[in-house]
Amino acid sequence: MALQSTEMVRETPPRPATPATPVTPVVQLRASEPAVAPEAAKPCIVASHLSAFFGNTAAVRDVSIAIPQNAVTAIIGPSGCGKSTLLRCFNRMHETVPNTRVEGSVEILGSSIYGDGSSPIAVRRHVGMVFQRPTPFPTMSIRANVAAGLRVDAKSHAARGATSEIVEEALQRAGLWAEVKDRLDESAIALSGGQQQRLCIARALATRPRVILLDEPTASLDPLSTQKVEELVYELRQTVTVVIVTHNMQQAARVSDGTAFLLMGELVEFASTRQLFTAPRDARTESYITGRFG
Fold it and tell me: Is the pTM of this model over 0.70?
């Protein structure tokens, strides 16, 4: 699957007008620079009328969203609202579960990932994913873990000798090189939990994807490791599109440029993080971010 960047325009269905009453923030917004409004950037992922089913039950319902390039987009909402399912639809992992199906369309940089002839393996080379708990391959070394994805796409690398350079680059981008450069042949299990999660991010980055999907990547980490992963996520936006699912609204405010709020499988609101947390358009969003439910 050849992903080529094309400019696309998001058509947003009209939302009912609600009073724009400023909300007293319950989270600390990142103050270093203003968030970029999702509408102002070129879209990378465009989902149109996307629904995802487990059997006859819809976990995601008619979601249309355009996620901008080279930005961090957070997806928030209460447990069971379809956040992780939506994320898994963006790299065709939802269909790996028996008795599931997807309706609607998803385009990444103008290419339909559910179109005829589209390969799920090719999609996942361009759309990396990191899960809630660190998942290093236990029988592999640190080096082999990072290089694992390259074996799937061996033809794209001109020479076997290039692997060492790619491994180093991926570990550098994941902020882990300085900590493991003298331990590359040791087991990945010897790393701390936070290091293992950054190793998984490095493994995803090794194939040089256009998109990284993060499903609650710090849920099982201590505060210091969480901080390192958040700093990494914020830096990655310079070169890759990042979509992160999180239950932590403070985290969404710290790392993201735009935030989408899901409720019962439906997309309630998608806006710049600053707008969503200070002047949400929908009363349900305001109720959630102020802690009235969820």
Answer: yes
